[in-house]
Amino acid sequence: MLTIAANIVVFFVAILHVYILVLEMFLWDKPLGRRAFGLSADFAAQTKTLAANQGLYNGFLAAGLFWGLSLGQAGFSVKVFFLLCVFVAGIYGGLTANKKILLIQAVPAALGLVLLFLAS
Fold it and tell me: Phi, psi at residue 26, to the nearest 5°?
């Protein structure tokens, strides 16, 4: 049961990072992207390339989590590695950019890590 719960959380974190990829790579300067990140049209236009690069990294995090899930039990260390990456990124983003990032990224990653270790 804990393994299923852990994998659901890992899946949720992966889907979240796909969503962030879409926001940063494709919608950054569109109304939805600007609203999600609280950006002015001018700032969004000036930082569009940087955001796309950042979105690509979020895509790599999602891909790693999906990879770990696809490996079943053998994917434990892959899931742990990528959840740790998300957790560290969430802590850093929460401390340097916006405190909401702690709740959006770091907390779900921490929950996934706890569940993975409890299930093992």
Answer: -120, -25
